[in-house]
Design brief:
Strand 13 and strand 14 form a beta hairpin. By secondary structure, the chain is an alpha+beta fold. Helices cover 32% and strands 25% of the residues. It has 14 helices and 20 strands. It folds into three domains: 138 residues, Rossmann fold; 70 residues, ATP-grasp fold, A domain (Dna Ligase, domain 1), CATH 3.30.1490; 231 residues, ATP-grasp fold, B domain (D-amino Acid Aminotransferase, Chain A, domain 1, 2-Layer Sandwich). The protein is globular, with a radius of gyration of 22 Å.
Length: 481
């Protein structure tokens, strides 16, 4: 039986906990807590780090008890200390702890948790886990397994999107069987093409090809990478959109056929095909385009029977044509900037929807109030090509929370250990102000005031220098190109 720890004693980092629970509910202007509404009594968070802390904050505000799960090296982690109960589910490697469905399901049973919020990553888009939890009588706080399965398969999701009349990138409708078929299809579409894995994500299993030779080699390498990363080597080919913008639309859908969109997020500034800086709204999207993107995102969600928070991603070319890329069937890392400009607590909405409540918002309720920017602070060194995490103990850690309009979603505190076993994201720094220029300047001030020192690393061992340079030279230049 898993070891359960009930939290009743005081911790050395109580000042950190007070700071964590001092989140300002006034930013959620559309989401006041309704104490009369029926709700779950206890939720287990099947994750770690900043996203586990984020979910716990909303649960606390709603009066819902929380259960944290953790590996043995995470026993003093912030999410463990914030939760009402904690269960150790195994040793440090994720395959032995945070990915162990049997251990997490046992923790649900042992603690009496009624529902599980998976956060992002780990088991958040695992259809087997969602199914097993449901069969055991628990509730998965996310979309149904059918929707996860359909949208997680890029070939199937493209077919569903086409039927829903969502704008599509020209490409081959089906699986590419081998390298020669890849070359044939690429010539029919016209170079350049994007070769990518059907089950891919996070920039893995993707190659751009500009000629037949690159198509053959790209297919071989992408298929190998897909097989090793996802256990699925099915490939597809589509037209490559050169120098596109990456813009995504947040949607909310309930179990009663209602769907709304919460405006877009600009996610074009990336490194290694992974997002680093996001903003909302996008400076490139006019109102009529926003409306069309939102309507198509909702059409896709309704077509697949979606019933939670989700994100529909689009590629946008220089002429403002947009094309469906994929749908992420989970809470996105960058959801706080949408919360800032709309006043909607997306985590609270996910919990309400999972319980069975109808959306308490209409499309006409959703505003764009001001501007928000998010920078992901990673424990990785830009001078070492963003390689392995910069591991070690934080000897000094001060977030720039004295600045008005700054929000920090983090899962660490002074004295925390940065581990090589997990994703090196340590904090999401969010700036919110009246307009874009004011928000960028606020973010620069916040980055300047951020204090990070460690026993092995120092501030330059994080990606903050990279972020500052990007803010200085990229964001403003891309304002309305």
């Amino acid at each position: 039986m898993a070891m359960i720890v009930f939290k009743s004693r005081l911790y050395a980092c109580n000042y950190i906990l007070r700071r964590c629970f001092a989140s300002d509910r006034s930013m959620y202007v559309l989401d006041p807590i309704n104490p009369e509404e029926k709700k779950f009594q206890k939720i287990l968070i099947a994750n770690r780090g900043e996203i586990a802390c984020r979910v716990i904050k909303t649960c606390k505000a709603m009066g819902i008890k929380t259960v944290a799960v953790h590996s043995d090296v995470d026993s003093l982690a912030l999410h463990v200390q914030m939760a009402d109960e904690a269960v150790c589910i195994g040793p440090a490697p994720t395959r032995d702890s945070y990915l162990r469905m049997d251990k997490i399901l046992q923790a649900v049973k042992d603690t009496g948790a009624e529902a599980v919020h998976p956060g992002y990553g780990f088991l958040s888009e695992n259809t087997e886990f969602a199914r097993l939890l449901t069969e055991a009588g628990g509730v998965f706080i996310g979309p149904n397994s059918k929707a996860i399965l359909a949208m997680g398969d890029k070939i199937q999701s493209k077919r569903i999107a086409t039927e829903a009349k969502v704008s599509m990138i020209p490409g081959f409708d089906g699986e590419i069987k081998d390298a020669e078929m890849c070359v044939k299809v690429a010539n029919e579409i016209g170079y350049p093409v994007m070769i990518k894995a059907s089950a891919g994500g996070g920039g893995k299993g993707m190659r751009i090809a500009w000629n037949d030779k690159e198509a053959r080699e790209g297919f071989r390498l992408s298929q190998q990478e897909a097989a090793s990363s996802f256990g699925d080597d099915r490939m597809l080919v589509e037209k490559y959109i050169d120098n596109p913008r990456h813009i995504e639309m947040q949607v909310l859908c309930d179990k009663h056929g209602n769907a709304i969109w919460l405006n877009e997020r600009e996610c074009s500034i990336q490194r290694r095909n992974q997002k680093v800086i996001e903003e909302s709204p996008s400076p490139f999207v006019p109102p009529e385009m926003r409306k069309k993107m939102g309507e198509e995102a909702c059409a896709l969600a309704l077509a697949v029977g979606y019933d939670s928070a989700g994100t529909v991603e689009f590629l946008v070319d220089s002429k403002r044509n947009f094309y469906f890329l994929e749908m992420n069937t989970r809470l996105q890392v960058e959801h706080p900037i949408t919360e800032a400009v709309t006043g909607v607590d997306i985590v609270q909405q996910m919990i309400r929807i999972a319980y069975g409540h109808k959306l308490n918002l209409k499309q006409s309720d959703i505003p764009i109030r001001g501007w928000a920017l998010e920078c992901r602070v990673y424990a990785e060194d830009p001078y070492k090509s963003f390689g392995l995490p910069s591991v070690g103990r934080l000897t000094r850690y001060e977030e720039p929370l004295r600045l008005n309009g700054i929000r920090c979603d983090s899962g660490i505190y002074e004295g925390s250990e940065i581990s090589i076993y997990y994703d090196p994201l340590i904090c999401k720094l969010i700036a919110y102000a009246n307009d874009r220029i004011e928000t960028i300047n606020l973010m620069r001030d916040a980055l300047d005031e951020y204090v990070i020192r460690g026993k092995i690393f120092y501030k330059s061992a994080f990606n903050i220098i990279f972020i500052v340079l990007k803010l200085r030279f990229s964001l403003l230049l891309r304002c309305d190109e």
